[in-house]
Design goal:
- The chain is of the alpha/beta class.
- 35% of the residues lie in helices and 29% in strands.
- It contains 8 helices and 14 strands.
- An 8-stranded mixed sheet has the order 5-8-2-1-11-13-14-12, with helices on both faces.
- Strand 9 and strand 10 form a beta hairpin.
- The chain is globular and about 55 Å long.
């Protein structure tokens, strides 16, 4: 089975714990692909370079980073640094990791959103000159070829358009596109929360399980980045994935905890346990 892991760029995510588990999975012969975020790193770099981040909210209520040309180049720098450090950390753990950008080998394809319709108070504005995009495909053969060579891909989700322009894409939706292309066993989002919360930020209101048909309603009350993750989960499940997990990336052994039901599991079909519970999970 193939697993796709989205390692969030939130400062609260315990990347070291996730890398420890991924190394253990690799030693056991389990195959995986990692897509990583950079939100904390990119914000800090933008501030240091005198070009702080600008966040906008679309008319549909999704908040995202406005990516002008300079911001796009700042993202490329931030992704390069984070990607290199993740690859080095995995190699220290004995994993033959390989760092990739979505622009390499046609790994991620995207359609550019040249104009954004955003909310500005009570007004709706059109923002032009944006270098962000929506994923439209992923090169599964490239990833399978690397995995056959014993290499584990660590992906920075910048993308190319069919015209060859570099665009920023939402990392969660990029992970969904890659999971769909690979027809993965599952997609796990490692987040800075215990899962989907019905009454954010009250962690006692965690939703343990969500069915595909409940996603639309959940997107209406979910808060912040969780809305992006639910959108990505919907896209992955529509493409044939059996399960998506929203996992607590702050804790030790976050992947094991998620597969044991300690996050939010989103299902498209009756539950299929990925590993025997008596074996202690991954």
């Amino acid at each position: 089975p193939m697993w796709v892991i989205k390692l969030g760029g939130n400062a609260a995510v315990n990347a070291e714990a996730a890398l420890d588990e991924l190394a253990a999975w690799a030693r056991e012969g389990r195959r995986w692909v990692v897509i990583h975020g950079i939100s904390k790193e990119a914000d800090a770099l933008g501030e240091a370079l005198g070009h702080p981040p600008q966040y906008v909210t679309s008319v549909s209520g999704f908040t995202s980073r406005y990516t002008d040309e300079r911001t796009r180049d700042i993202l490329l720098m931030a992704y390069g640094r984070v990607n290199a450090h993740l690859v080095a950390a995995l190699r220290r753990r004995g994993v033959h990791a390989i760092g990739l950008r979505g622009i390499d080998g046609g790994l991620l394809q995207a359609r550019r959103k040249e104009a954004l319709r955003i909310r500005d108070g009570d007004r709706i504005r059109i923002l032009r000159g944006d270098y962000s995009g929506a994923p439209i495909g992923a090169n599964a053969e490239l990833l399978r070829g690397l995995l056959r060579l014993g290499l584990y891909p660590v992906i920075a989700p910048m993308s190319l358009t069919p015209e060859g322009e570099i665009v920023n894409v939402d990392g969660d939706r990029a992970a969904a596109a890659i999971a769909a292309a690979l027809q993965a066993e599952g997609l796990i989002f490692l987040t800075g929360a215990p899962g989907l919360l019905r009454a954010f930020p009250d962690e006692t209101t965690r939703v343990a399980e969500l069915r595909f048909e409940e996603l639309e309603e959940a997107m209406a009350w979910a808060q912040g980045r969780m809305r992006h993750k639910l959108l990505a989960a919907r896209e992955a499940l529509q493409s044939g994935l059996p399960c998506v997990w929203l996992a607590d990336g702050r804790r030790p052994a976050p992947l094991t905890a998620a597969l044991r039901g300690e996050g939010t599991r989103i299902t498209a079909m009756p539950l299929r346990l990925p590993f025997p519970m008596e074996a202690g999970g991954p």
